[in-house]
Specification:
This protein has 152 residues and is mainly beta. The chain is built from 1 helix and 12 strands; from the N terminus they run ββββββββββββα. It has a single domain, classed as Jelly Rolls. The protein is globular.
Length: 152
């Protein structure tokens, strides 16, 4: 069953199922990810489908390691720069006010040389590839066990 929501927005609990959900990102705390120097504020998540809209902050030099976009990924850079460190679009740089979307199946390593804040929209979580052969989502769950059941 689908249950889209914004984590830690208690005011939403009292709303009717079809009411709009206003989210003030300033009231949300930055949450650390499993990647050093990367933090998120989840604006919308649907754990059943993997849909995720989040603000992401990367400290200077932070890296998102080798990953594959399993659905379309959309990224809008609010400040700073996001750069493809490795992959077919190596050195592609997206700066403030610029938008990039990546097709399902695209794979790369991303980094922020001087830090950045982005708005990211995922249809289903990325696959992160580890040197030991393990494939996980960003939370560290086995990707195939959690998301591979006929989803992508």
């Amino acid at each position: 069953m689908s249950n889209p929501h914004t984590p830690n927005m208690r005011a939403h609990e009292e709303l009717s199922p079809l009411a709009s959900r206003k989210v003030d990102p300033e009231t949300l705390d930055w949450q650390p990810t499993s990647f050093a120097g990367c933090y998120t504020k989840t604006l919308l998540t649907d754990p059943a489908t993997g849909l995720l809209t989040a603000l992401m902050k990367m400290e200077p030099g932070a890296v998102l390691p080798d990953h594959e976009h399993t659905g379309i990924e959309q990224t809008f850079v609010l400040d700073g720069h996001l750069v493809d460190k490795e992959g077919p679009d190596k050195n592609l740089e997206i700066g403030p006010g610029q938008y990039v979307w990546r097709p399902a199946g695209s794979r790369h390593t991303a980094w922020s040389p001087n830090g950045c804040t982005i708005l990211a929209i995922f249809q289903i979580p990325n696959k992160f590839f580890h040197q030991n052969g393990q494939i996980t989502d960003a939370a560290g769950h086995d990707w195939h066990e959690k998301w591979g059941k006929g989803k992508a």
